[in-house]
Write a structure and sequence with these properties.
Length: 271
């Protein structure tokens, strides 16, 4: 078993089918960055087993190898291919579980890019594809989404991650937003998600794993399920202004602000 990381960097692109992952990969290819796609690994495995790469067989193979070899099975199959590549920066498109990210992080330096799109946009994009496994109807599309989410999250329960009664609990959230220079975008999302009682937003779990912030919808966008952040405050807009750096005077430590962070974790096998 490998004990030391190499200097290679893996950029993991995550998102639901049709979100735009392949478009991001095309940019990487134009930059001469090697790209590995999880779907290609599944198709190669189906062909190795003598199966036609149609949507039914690919779905069954995807579920089977993760059931028998664990949720990091696809990433483990990628490691030998990555080792053979001369590139020092590579892209892996289509990770579907945190175990895949963790498997790659054992060997390499990993960054994550999360790409989101509405279900309607994703369905239209998938219809235009010429692959045999594309959904033909909205019913097929929803079934495929369920399969993708089943692989990523399995049966889930909500766990409390953090609960605090003062604004200091949001310091790291504030730091990341300002460090990543997403203050304007974050401010727009937070304001839209606020009312007189507080704020509720959802964060992509895979992106949060590597200490970045990417907002997402509560369902259908984060393959691992989202992290829910709830902020209750007497003046939500003052808290938002502080988070995005628009308020020069810091808030008092105890600003009548309560924040709760919850996430959904696997509690049993996805099968």
């Amino acid at each position: 078993m490998r004990r030391f990381k190499t200097e290679k960097k893996i950029i993991v692109i995550v998102g639901m089918p049709g979100a735009g992952k392949s478009l991001a990969s095309q940019v990487a290819k134009r930059m001469k960055i090697p790209v590995f796609v999880s779907g290609d690994v599944i198709r190669n495995e189906a062909l190795r087993r003598g199966l036609s790469p149609n949507k039914k067989n690919l779905g069954q193979v995807m579920l089977h190898i993760r059931k028998t070899d664990g949720m990091g099975a696809v990433a483990r199959r990628l490691v030998p291919l990555i080792e053979l590549s001369a590139g020092m920066t590579l892209v892996y498109e289509g990770a579907r579980s945190m175990e895949e990210v963790e498997e790659l992080a054992r060997h390499y330096n990993v960054s994550i890019i999360a790409i989101h799109a509405s279900p309607e946009t994703r369905f239209r994009r998938l219809l235009k594809r010429k692959r045999g496994d594309r959904p033909r109807t909205m019913s097929d599309f929803r079934e495929r989404d369920k399969r993708e989410l089943k692989v990523g999250v399995g049966r889930r329960r909500v766990f409390l991650v953090m609960e605090a009664d003062d604004v200091s609990s949001l310091e790291r959230f504030r730091m990341i937003i300002q460090r990543d220079r997403i203050r304007a975008a974050a401010g727009a999302v937070l304001r839209k998600a606020s009312d007189t009682d507080g704020i509720q937003v959802f964060l992509n779990k895979q992106v949060a794993f590597v200490m970045h912030v990417s907002f997402c919808e509560p369902e259908g966008e984060s393959p691992l399920g989202p992290i829910r952040l709830v902020i209750q405050a007497d003046d939500p807009f003052k808290v938002i202004n502080w988070v995005i750096g628009g308020q020069s005077k810091p808030l008092r430590r105890r600003q009548d602000t309560r924040s709760t962070l919850t996430e959904e974790r696997d509690t049993e096998s996805p099968l």
